[in-house]
Each structure stands twice: as C-alpha cells, then as structure tokens.
Prior knowledge:
By secondary structure, the chain is an alpha/beta fold.
Amino acid sequence: MTSSNSAPILKSGHLLGIEGLSPIEVTALLDLAESYVIQGRAADKKTALLRGRTLINLFFEASTRTQSSFELAAKRLGADTLNMAVKNSSVSKGETLIDTASTLNAMRPDILVVRHQDAGAAELLSRKLDCSVVNAGDGAHEHPTQALLDALTIRRRRGGFENLVVAICGDILHSRVARSNLRLLAMMGARVRLVAPRTLLPAEADRWGVEIFTDMKAGLASADIVMMLRLQLERMGGAFVPSSREYFRFWGLDRAKLAYAKPGALVMHPGPMNRGVEIASDIADDMDVSLISEQVEMGVAIRMAVLDALSRGLS
C-alpha cells in the first residue's frame, strides 16, 4: 500500500498540537498505530511506504527518546532521514529561525520534525516551509506525539478512555507533556486530574476544565492511571521546590502513595526519569505496575502512524 492511495487522516497537513485535532483524527491515528505495533514486533520491520521521501529532525533541545524514535520510525517506513546538529549549525552562529526555515525549505524536505525551546516555533515553521511539520515539543506549550503514544498505551491496557480517572502528577507548570495529555484525554472522555504543589501549578490551570489537587493522597484516590512527570530543574529560575529529597517525600511516587490509587492502577512516566525524585525504582521497574517500557515501544508505533498520515497529503 502507498500513501497516495490512502485517505487523509490529518486535515491540516501538520501535527502542531493536540489542540485542533478531533476525536476522529485521534482515533484514526491510534488505530493506524496498532498496525505498526505489530510491524515493530515482526522479524522484518521495514516497509517502502515513504521511499523517496526525506525527513529532517531539527532539535534545538537535547532529546534521546523523541529524536531517536522519530528517526527509527522514518527509517522503518523507508524514508531518508537527516538529524541536524543544531549546536554545529548556523543557528549557533546567530541565524534566526526564519533564516533556518528558508535554508531548510531550499533542501525540499517532505517532513520536518522540530523541537524548540520557544512556544509557537513549530507553528511558525509550518507557515514558512512547504513541507509537513511535526511539533516534537515547543517550550511549555505542547508535545502531541507524547500524548498520542500515552493514549495508545492506555487504550491497549484499558480498552478505552470513557470515565477513566487519570492523575497527572508533578511539575505541571513546566510540562508540555501535561498540557497535551490533558487535552487529549479529556477530549476522549477521561476524567483528568492535575496533582501538584501550588508552586508547580500554572496560574491558568483552573481554567483548563480539569480537577486540581494540591494533596497527593486526595489526588490519587481512585485513580486508574498515575502519570508522573519529570521535575524540570533546567527550566526553573527560582526555588519552586525545597530540595529533591523533600520533593520525593511529599510528591514522589512510592508504594505508600500508590496505595491511595485504585487497586490495579497503572503507572506512567514520559522519561527521562529522575529515580528517587519523581518515582521510586521499585515502582518504575515493576512490570506488573509500570507502563514505562511500553510507552517507549508505543512511541515508535505512533510516530510511524503520524509520518504515514502526513505522507498521505504529499504530492
């Protein structure tokens, strides 16, 4: 099957955020990703679906999981891939994002995957380039493929989202993962809770239409899914938490706190983990409880689905 013979899934031709997607588009992406889970577990993992297409990874922020996942997804679909080393590029010499966009456009890529420290960078590039753009994280704004892979992981384990209680815990303030997840999960019918100290809650969180808790015990009560977030110390300019040890004592997930959740509750973390800060190792490594390794596997499948979906709009 080639992409030109397939119906479009993403109407906009880009994936810039969960905001703007419909439940139909989300479901279609998750359904398509299921086929790529199967392909990823097969002996022959490659297809020629994107043969002749070019994908550029442009990461202004360091990333291991996301960048390697997109690269692997593209190669499994047969695309040519280029990872641009920003620290060695003209960007590091003062080139503007607009100049970079012009340079990239001249290379005629088919898909650009971009991670940038500023919110809105991916959207700006989508207006300046002639190719499809995927947002791999822009500031504290969105990280749509992380939310999609989390949704795929949850759906495979729980069958759906309706009335599922999902507690997103930790550094909400600096987390684009939290923003994308709460939008997607709420849209699909889950009950979303934000659980965090007041210093790590955005001022506008009370307008997001989700439940907010500043007490871990109350926030985890009857939760089906406990999604822990990384404490993003690199984005903190002040004293948001007293110390890592104190943070773990009150907000890190250990067995005692997990006991507040519903029996059989499952634990997630987008990575990279700070063990002993956000989550105890015995929980992270417990395959009966932790979905963390499964999230990594689903990341490749969902990114294959996204690249497949975007390729259907390419001429």
